[in-house]
Amino acid sequence: MHKTKPFASLSLDLDNQWAYMKTHGNDGWESFPSYLDIVVPRILNFLEERGLKITFFIVGQDAILEKNSKAIQSIGNAGHEIGNHSFKHEAWLHLYSEQQVESEISITEGLLEKLTGQKPIGFRGPGYSLSQSVLRVLYDRGYQYDASTLPTFIGPLARIYYFMTAKLTPDDKKNRKLLFGELHDGLRPIRPYKWQIEGSSKSLVEIPVTTMPVFRIPFHVSYLLYIYRVSPLLALNYFRLGMVMCHLTGTQPSLLLHPLDFLGANDIQELAFFPAMDLSYEKKKEFVSKVLKIYADNFTILPLGQFVSSISNKHLLQMIAPEFRSERISA
Length: 331
Known about the structure:
The chain is α/β, with parallel strands linked by helices and 331 residues long. Helix content is 40%, strand content 11%.
């Protein structure tokens, strides 16, 4: 008799070309250049060949443009879950007023439902940005889960590297000063839990992007590709270690993909500044295939919405009172 594998989840943040350029401070993002017509068919074919259904977190600014409609509709038509990834994809969402957060989430929600027929039940903040306002808006709009946390200690180091390589003004750096999180984010749980909504007994399920149990270092695919550039074997063994640690600690992981995991510099020259963009698509595809084979050998892979539904005794999940910076920008 085969032992039943525990459940795990898989998602992809469908960050578009303009969003990377905007975050990096590059000119030309205002025309919203898009690679969705290239990368979405690749990803859908890749997933279909492996019998996988996942969650795509989609940005509202892409959904509002007709040139992206076909690609986004094809995601829903292929049976994947549609998640909300904000409208403007600004990694300083935690600075927004509650009214601004409501607009970001509600407009994107309506656009995605119109295009795909699915009303999103899950949200992920760009750059893992989160606030009390975001949680309140999500709960009030009937969302079942948030997936905006990355419990790791290395966020500030990633931000330092980013500031050194990006073309940012002092104001840009001010907005992005909490990009990738703070040091204490490494103390957040790596297993699913519930946020207590401020001032009430209400709660919302949180599904963290899983980091290595005990060590709290990332193992999402984009991070693995950085290691791949040093040694493909090291990258795969690092991921295997992550799977072993998840089993030893009873952690049901949530693994994250990005479009750049399926694109090479020969596809999008404007994004050559990103780490691992010197690798060809063919090499990335081969590597990502091996990673997901290891993942599927260890766990039964579900979209996030199904994963949340599969969690037994959700009422027993740890309840946490959120603590976030109270900074705001004017509405």
